[in-house]
Write a structure and sequence with these properties.
- About 35% of the residues lie in helices and about 25% in strands.
- With about 300 residues, it is an alpha+beta fold.
- A seven-stranded mixed β-sheet has the order 8-9-10-11-12-7-13, sandwiched between helices. Strands 1, 2, 3, 4, 5 and 6 form a six-stranded mixed β-sheet that branches.
- Strand 2 and strand 3 form a beta hairpin.
- Helix 1 crosses helix 2 and helix 7 packs across helix 8.
Length: about 300
């Protein structure tokens, strides 16, 4: 019979991640994911993407560190968009897997959501990993539909853009546009508030927000990461969040929004446009397939 691996959880202190630890947290993130999926060089995972630093800068108080005798051994980021929240990447050094550290990083994350009044919390993980799914079920997370991370080649911008970019607007118009994103987000899901994400991308200049206006209101918007310091890999533009106003024009507006994201990506000299779609949202998923997007990987929500 195999000897049980002793837990280390009692020896681990959970505290906020510090700025000087970002490089090491990023290294652990790549090493952990790259090792799990079996890359020849684990450090090639999400090459160029600054996911950990980007999410830390968005909310330093909500990025947790696992400290073992003064050494950083893991981390977990918490993101809240009004009524909706998610966590990740949750990573632990591979040689310390299955020692209870991941669970210790989840406990205060759940408390942060409660303290902030977050009503709905989710995550994205490996659908083929009983270990990951089993851990998250301990905290009330149950697997639902697959989410496809999809990409298509960036096409040369053949027509003038019909959307606005938040960064190019004057200050008053920026404020009004950000408030309009709040109104549209609430129309999609009560209390959904993307303003922290939008302001973070604007402040860090690591992407932009694409705004698709109708005659008298905002019809769709997308928060895009692109370039150094962003969550996008080298050569890609990553649509971290996109939404269209519910109604009869939603399908058409989704196609227009994706085309405008493509124009933005072309302007940033990106080779690929990357976006996610939950397969339970059949119309959106089908529209992306019809629009030339190809699934790159699948996770479970």
């Amino acid at each position: 019979m195999d000897q049980a691996i002793p837990t280390l959880s009692a020896s681990v202190a959970i505290r906020p991640l510090r700025e000087h630890e970002l490089d090491e947290a990023d290294r652990i993130f790549r090493l952990a994911f790259g090792t799990f999926i079996g890359l020849p060089d684990p450090m090639d995972f999400m090459k160029g993407a600054q996911l950990v630093p980007s999410r830390w800068r968005a909310d330093p108080s909500a990025f947790l560190a696992a400290d073992l005798d003064g050494t950083l051994v893991g981390s977990n980021g918490v993101t809240t968009w009004g009524s909706v929240g998610f966590f990740g990447p949750l990573t632990v050094r591979p040689e310390l897997w299955d020692r209870g550290i991941g669970q210790r990083l989840l406990e205060p994350a759940m408390q942060l959501f409660r303290d902030r009044g977050t009503r709905e919390v989710g995550l994205f993980t490996f659908p083929h990993s009983p270990k990951h799914i089993g851990l998250y079920q301990k905290f009330g997370f149950w697997p639902r539909s697959l989410t496809a991370v999809m990409r298509r080649r960036v096409r040369p911008a053949e027509a003038p853009a019909r959307a606005s970019l938040l960064s190019q607007l004057p200050d008053d118009a920026r404020t009004q546009s950000i408030d309009a994103c709040l109104e549209l987000g609430d129309a999609v899901h009560a209390g959904l508030d993307l303003r922290p994400e939008i302001r973070g991308v604007l402040a860090n200049a690591n992407g932009d927000t694409v705004l698709l206006w109708g005659a008298d209101r905002l019809e769709a918007f997308a928060v895009c990461h692109c370039g150094p310091g962003s969550e996008a890999e080298d050569g890609t533009c990553y649509v971290k969040f996109g939404a269209c106003r519910p109604g009869p024009r939603a399908d058409a507006n989704l196609g227009r929004l994706l085309d405008e994201c493509g124009r933005f990506a072309a302007g940033r000299a990106a080779d690929w446009l990357v976006a996610g779609a939950n397969t339970a949202r059949r119309r959106a998923y089908s529209a992306m397939l019809d629009g030339g997007f190809v699934p790159q990987l699948f996770g479970v929500a």
